[in-house]
Every structure is written in C-alpha cells, then in structure tokens.
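Query structure, 428 tokens:
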C-alpha cells in the first residue's frame, strides 16, 4: 500500500504509474475530496475541543461568582460540543476507511529501473543460461510423456477433482517429492530458514501481501471467511505482521514448501493442456525481509538462488525484467525466470522474484528498529520469489531430458532423492 502522504504529494506520479500498468486506475478526484473532508473534520474537532476546554474552565469561575444561569449555559455548550465531536469522530472514521480503501486499491509504483511496456512481449531479456534443447528425433510434450510413463494421469485427476487437476503416480509422485526436498535443501544450505505453514489463511494475511481485495475472484474460499493460500508468500510474509523486527538481524531469509490453490479465473483458454496452468500445484517459496538500502541487492541474490536451482538441474532458461505493463500489483520491480519447454518451442515462466519495497510492509505493519541508525521504527522491505514451481519444473525435466525410446533421464542432482533412479522408462 502506498503512503497516503506520498499520494497526496505525488498525484502526477501515481497517474503515470497507473497509466503504465495494465488495468490499473485510481480516482484522483475522489481521493482529494476525501482527503480534504478528513482534514476539515480534524480541524473542526480540534477547534471544538479547544473551545470546550476553554468553556469548561469558565464554568467553575462562573459558579464561584454566583452566576448560576451563565454556568448552566456554559455546561450546555460543553455537552453540545461533546455530541458534535462524537458525531464528527464517526464521520472521520467513515471518511478514513473510504480513503484507506481507495489507496489500498492503487498498485505499487514501478521502480525507476523498470522498463516501460504494454505487456509481456515488452519484457527485455537480461541474460540466458544454456541453449534450447535440440533433439535428433521428434520430441513429445509432457502431456504425452506423463501418461506413457505412468507419471501423470490426467483422466483420473479430472475424475477425482475436475478440470485443471491431475494425478501423479509412480515416478511422477516420486519426482514431485524429490524436487520439493531438493529445492528446500538447496535454499537451507544457502542460509534460508525453513518453515511449514498452514495452507488455510485469513483476510488480514491476504490483504497484507496484496491479494485482497483486488484478486478475490482468483482465490478459493472456504468456510468461516477463510481462504486456501495461492502461494506460501502470504504465510511467510505475514509471520511478522504487526511486529517490530530487530534491525541487527536483517535481512531475514525464509523458505517453505506448500501446495498452492488458484481459481485461475482470468485464464480461460490459456495453457489448457498439461500441468503448466492448474488449480492446485506445489511450490517452494522464498521470502526476504530487508532494510531499504539493501533490498535491491537482496532481489538480485534471490534471482541468483532461483537460477542456481535451474542450473543444478541442467535446465536451459533465461531471465527477463517485467515491464510496467506486466509487473504485479505489489511489486516495484520483478524478474521472471523462464525455462525452455520444447512443447511450446519457447520459454515459460517458472519463477517470479519481486521486490515489493515497503508496499506490503505498510499493509501488514511490519517494521524494524535500529537504535544505532535512527530513532523510532521504519517499514521493512519485503521480497518474494518462487524457488521453484514444482509442477512446471517436472514438465521441463520430462521434456528436456526425454529420449528417443520414450524414456526420461533423471537429472543427476535428483537421483539421490529418487532412490538412485537414473531413467524413467515408458510403461510396457
């Protein structure tokens, strides 16, 4: 969430930011109406309080002077002031809520280093690792390799839950578990603290990271006003909601595996085959809490950590910077890692690493204190990134490591996690 004072002082910048994003807008006129109304109410209350205090002091003096009628009239004024102040305080509460809701719907301001663009076609490539896999045979897509090896059963997945769900079996189930453990072990070795959070969350947590209220239709609702999490980012970031952190302990690096649940309400007709865009998927997430002056360095190191996982798996990929038209609601800067998928003859997103600046921290009230540097507290900067999306990684392994006979070679780094399995053979 943006600072209301910042919005008041920089409306042209907010205009420019919203104009550069997809489907982003804000009601500038309404903002200033509410802001002026709020300040007017505050001014009137302060004047009434001052008048009330002055009159209250006069009551005693009037009583001592025997001016009972004047004293009673003064008491009536004090009572009337109290009623009016109560009325104005109720009005202020409503105005401040309306102002808060208006500002909470404004997306973050893209960092000055974010390139302008309309959509993902304008995302510039930063670097690439490896070359697109070449075959001397006609390669298959993972949605064909999955059933032929017994790794994925699409038909029974749909029978069990519905469209955009799938069932993993045999080596598929084993590889899913192997990838989760491999990613977590890699991050922990790099210095991340592992957590195991719930997968059901509340409104405040989703508001804190920016999923609510804007993306309500993309979330799975459960009873009691609760939700299934769309990403572990929600839980890891909100661990410190309404807390003041010790500045000496920053940055904090957290990681967690969770299943993730998304309605994918706006994705009709996109990636309908395979396991690239589904309603339930596994992901290992990274989250960081950093000091403002260090957050961009932490973003670069987070991207490097996600890249390390892809490099260890030997999967070709490239890194792109998301342009203004493609960047997420809460992010001020974001990199996407896109892995090569032969079935698309293109790169597909497998990780997004974002610096959210103080946008989430203001919504979730996450601050830090560092007496050696300043008095009081400051908002931390929060960062998040996939490390990695497990299903998409499996799809990439299946397609890039396939062999002419329909078998799939297991990446060497995964073999210790897969009972030393070297090759996944097609079913007889």
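Result returned for the query:
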């Amino acid at each position: 969430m943006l600072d209301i004072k910042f919005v008041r002082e920089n409306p042209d910048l907010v205009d420019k930011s919203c104009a550069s994003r997809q489907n982003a807008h804000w009601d500038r006129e309404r903002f200033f109406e509410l802001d002026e109304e709020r300040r007017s109410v505050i001014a009137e209350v302060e004047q009434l309080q001052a008048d009330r205090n002055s009159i209250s002091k006069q009551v005693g003096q009037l009583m001592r002077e025997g001016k009972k009628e004047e004293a009673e009239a003064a008491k009536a004024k004090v009572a009337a002031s109290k009623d009016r102040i109560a009325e104005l305080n109720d009005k202020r509460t409503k105005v401040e809520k309306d102002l808060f809701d208006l500002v909470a719907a404004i997306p973050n301001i893209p960092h000055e280093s974010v390139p302008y663009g309309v959509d993902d076609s304008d995302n510039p490539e930063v670097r690439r690792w490896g070359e697109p896999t070449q075959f001397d045979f006609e390669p298959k897509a993972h949605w064909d390799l999955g059933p032929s090896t017994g790794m994925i059963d699409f038909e029974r997945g749909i029978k069990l839950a519905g469209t955009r769900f799938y069932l993993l079996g045999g080596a598929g189930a084993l590889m899913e578990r192997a990838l989760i453990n491999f990613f977590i072990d890699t991050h922990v070795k790099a210095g991340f603290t592992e957590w195991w959070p719930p997968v059901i969350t509340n409104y405040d947590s989703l508001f804190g990271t920016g999923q609510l209220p804007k993306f309500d239709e993309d979330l799975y609702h459960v009873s009691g006003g609760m939700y299934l999490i769309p990403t572990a980012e929600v839980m890891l970031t909100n661990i410190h909601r309404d807390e003041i952190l010790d500045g000496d302990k920053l940055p904090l690096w957290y990681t967690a595996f969770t299943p993730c649940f998304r309605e994918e309400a706006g994705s009709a007709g996109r990636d309908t085959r395979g396991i690239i865009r589904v309603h339930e998927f596994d992901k290992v997430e990274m989250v960081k809490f950093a000091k403002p002056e260090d957050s961009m360095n932490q973003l670069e190191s987070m991207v490097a950590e996600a890249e390390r996982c892809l490099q260890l798996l030997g999967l070709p990929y490239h890194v792109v910077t998301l342009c203004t038209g493609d960047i997420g609601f809460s992010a001020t800067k974001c990199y996407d890692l896109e892995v090569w998928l032969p079935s698309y003859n293109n790169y597909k997103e497998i990780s997004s690493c974002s610096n959210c600046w103080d946008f989430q921290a203001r919504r979730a009230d996450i601050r830090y204190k560092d007496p050696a540097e300043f008095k009081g507290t400051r908002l931390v900067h929060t960062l998040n990134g996939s490390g990695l999306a497990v299903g998409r990684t499996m799809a990439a392994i299946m397609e890039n490591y396939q062999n002419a006979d329909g078998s799939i070679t297991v990446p060497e780094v995964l073999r210790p996690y897969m009972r030393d399995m070297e090759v996944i053979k097609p079913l007889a």
